[in-house]
Specification:
Elements: H1 18-24, H2 63-73, E1 86-95, E2 114-122, E3 139-146, E4 149-156, H3 169-176, H4 192-200, H5 205-212, E5 226-227, E6 232-235, E7 241-250, H6 259-268, H7 272-282, E8 287-297, E9 323-333, H8 337-342, E10 355-357, H9 361-378, H10 459-467, H11 470-485, H12 490-501, H13 505-515, E11 547-552, H14 558-570, E12 574-579, E13 583-586, E14 592-595, E15 597-598, E16 609-614, H15 620-636, E17 641-643, E18 662-664, H16 671-681
Helix pairs in contact: 3-4, 4-12, 5-10, 11-13, 12-13, 14-16
Length: 688
């Protein structure tokens, strides 16, 4: 394919990458083609079964019906037991600087080096049919199609995990999943089993606090910060290893929904995050994330007051700085959700030379689990030959056969070592690119036990709590009160209050009052440390790609509104016009504006900001009612509101009513710029 003429499916020019060149061979366009069976027999009728007369029974010889129906009944693969609900996109990663001092991984050797990637975001608890906006931890799997083979970097939207050993993961997920007798609740931890697990497994507390904070209900896949959780090794050409953890930092900053918004949106548009990512890429607002690494020398393994191999502990950026080493840009939507997103298979064991594994006990368990689950889902070891999973470099080995084998291996021999084929395929020495495991020194007894250095369950949760802004603390209290308030067992509620008191007594006492149990007798750990990097209050925010709903009818100030819309679009704001009916509205100077959505088909919960223009409509009473509803929801959820000169009757303020984030065209000397600044702020928590 000509690189200069390559286009994405949405018509935008895109710079071709090697993975998309490979996938192009598998992309099939059916439009405009004759309908056939899977064996390419052209069909003359695809609507009726073969019958013995038009009113007679169907015939067993109807192979065309049998093929069509049987294929349909077998179309789905087993749902992922976790991470079932997900979405993603294609893109590329560009290295900022050479990391050869620390790793020999080829895709990190030189500045400007670009590598094709595929990304899948997902929730954990809910089924494939659940909502995007559930309060949950979110995961991001990135498959790097490198010239040395595929490298899978799996991360989650919190820097800590709920378990310290992989042996506990099935127990945690059993408790987290819907209650087994009823199969409820879907995509929610607000039930007795989960909170009973938390109360009786102290290591779970830390991650639970993160999920109950604003981090648990993200605004967009494009605004997720995510961490590797596990500790890996970088290994350089000299064989020197360094401990490393990875973090993806979204260029747009880290932003969240309110709990009420997340619950409402889950019903209004359960595909909210999927739609947001897809629409942004279609509009050319590509999702961007910078890759950071935190590095610790092997000799400093015990230099901190937490164990760097403990996956339930974060590495504070203030102690172990994040070095940004590259940027990932997601710039192409998937062409087929099933073939790409459902069939993509990640495995943290998929590494390249220069990346290895530490003794992190969760990572060690994950190295076995992922391959097994893919065998179960796909029913074949050949899933790695599916187009989305296939490496861009050729692979050769002696594996043969199995269900749905794509390859036609023509060799005489299929074993190693051999003389008939000159001992090929051959192994490659490490100095020529062959993978070599880092020679870690291992000593000790075979034992089922956990390092005592993992046993501090409260210091870091306390630090996290100390680091939150007042509004983040308020939201966390509300989330915990909602979740624990849904627990039927008084004993489980009380146990969790005692657990939370070890983090903060006031936190636990406020929640105890809310859920009808006794205030705690436990004491909080005496820790006053806080880290600015843990609070979303310190994240960057932009107007770019924020969605502004323009609420208008006929008779608006054409010159004023046209000027404001032009300013919004110049700043990359997504503008959605909303009125009572579809069609066009006309301004006082004849300006016509096409309406994108009606008050019925859209919702104030789906919009980040409002530009209240007002106007006239043949059903004025209904128009005014709907517009006022949109304003009330936006206002009570602290969203920016711009008010046109014709829209002031819908937004009334008084001297005693502080309207932070509400910008009036009638009192602003540069309304467009001031409104854009408010849109960039996103929330006005000091609004009364």
């Amino acid at each position: 394919m000509d690189e200069n003429n390559s286009r994405s499916h949405n018509g935008k020019k895109e710079k071709q990458n090697r993975k998309n060149e490979q996938l192009e061979r598998f992309r099939i366009q059916n439009t405009g083609k004759p309908l056939t069976t899977n064996q390419a027999k052209k069909l003359s009728n695809d609507e009726d079964q073969l019958k013995a007369g038009v009113r007679g029974p169907t015939l067993r010889q109807d192979y065309e019906y049998f093929e069509k129906m049987t294929h349909f009944l077998h179309e789905e693969v087993p749902e992922r037991v976790v991470h079932a609900r997900g979405y993603g996109a294609h893109g590329e990663f560009e290295c900022y600087q050479s990391m050869k001092q620390f790793t020999k991984a080829g895709f990190l050797q030189e500045a400007g080096k670009k590598t094709s990637v595929f990304v899948r975001f997902s929730t954990v608890q809910g089924s494939k049919g659940s909502k995007d906006t559930a309060r949950d931890l979110r995961c991001k799997g990135v498959k790097f199609y490198t010239e040395e083979g595929n490298y899978d970097l799996t991360t989650i939207a919190m820097p800590v995990l709920i378990n310290q050993d992989a042996m506990k993961f099935p127990d945690m997920m059993h408790a987290y999943k819907p209650e087994p007798r009823t199969g409820m609740p879907t995509a929610s931890a607000a039930h007795d089993n989960f909170w009973d697990y938390v109360a009786n497994n102290q290591e779970a507390l830390h991650m639970v606090l993160w999920i109950m904070s604003d981090r648990g209900i993200v605004r967009s896949y494009r605004m997720i910060e995510s961490w590797s959780i596990n500790t890996y090794l970088f290994v350089n050409e000299e064989g020197v290893a360094t401990f490393v953890r990875f973090v993806w930092k979204p260029v747009l900053g880290v932003h969240s929904l309110l709990q009420d918004e997340a619950q409402k949106i889950g019903g209004i548009d359960p595909d909210y995050h999927r739609r947001d990512l897809r629409e942004a890429i279609d509009r050319g607002a590509y999702a961007e994330y910078e890759l950071g690494v935190q590095l610790v020398a092997l000799e400093d393994e015990f230099a901190f007051d937490f164990d760097i191999l403990d996956p339930a502990k974060f590495w504070p950026e203030e102690l172990i700085p994040v070095q940004l080493i590259g940027k990932m840009t997601l710039n192409r939507n998937v062409d087929n959700e099933f073939a790409e997103l459902e069939q993509v298979a990640f495995n943290p064991a998929n590494v390249v030379p220069g990346i290895d594994f530490s003794n992190d006990p969760v990572l060690q368990g994950r190295l076995m689990a992922y391959q097994s689950t893919q065998y179960h889902r796909f029913g074949s070891a050949n899933f790695q030959d599916l187009p989305i999973n296939r490496s861009i470099c050729p692979f050769h080995n002696n594996s043969r056969r199995g269900n749905m084998r794509y390859r036609i291996d023509v060799d005489e021999v299929n074993y190693h070592k051999n003389s008939l084929a000159d001992n090929t395929p051959y192994t490659t020495p490490p100095e020529e690119g062959g993978y070599e495991s880092y020679p870690k020194k291992i000593d000790g007894y075979a034992i089922r036990a956990r390092s005592k250095s993992f046993d501090d369950f409260y210091t870091q949760p306390r630090i996290f709590w100390n680091s939150l802004s007042p509004i983040e603390k308020q939201h966390t209290i509300e989330a915990l009160s909602f979740q624990l308030g849904s627990v039927k067992s008084v004993s489980v509620r009380q146990q969790n209050i005692e657990l939370l008191a070890k983090v903060d007594q006031e936190l636990a006492s406020l929640i105890a009052d809310n859920i009808g149990v006794s205030r705690p007798t436990s004491s909080q750990v005496p820790v006053s440390t806080s880290y600015p990097s843990l609070s979303q209050a310190n994240t960057p925010s932009y107007a770019y790609s924020q969605k502004v709903g323009v609420l208008l009818g006929d008779g608006f100030n054409g010159e004023e509104v046209s000027r404001v819309l032009k300013t919004l679009k110049e700043y990359g704001v997504f503008v959605v016009t909303v009125s009572e009916t579809l069609g066009t509205v006309t301004g006082d100077n004849g300006t016509k504006i096409e309406i994108d959505e009606t008050f019925l088909t859209s919702s104030p919960y789906l919009l980040d900001s409002l530009y209240v223009v007002g106007g006239s409509h043949k059903n004025q009473k209904r128009f005014d009612y709907d517009l006022n509803y949109y304003v009330d929801v936006a206002y009570t959820h602290y969203k920016p509101i711009g008010v046109a000169s014709t829209g002031q009757s819908y937004v009334r303020t008084s001297e005693n009513h502080h309207a932070a984030g509400v910008v009036f065209a009638s009192t602003s000397s540069d309304f467009g710029a001031e409104f854009v600044s408010a849109v960039a702020t996103q929330r006005f928590w000091d609004r009364e």
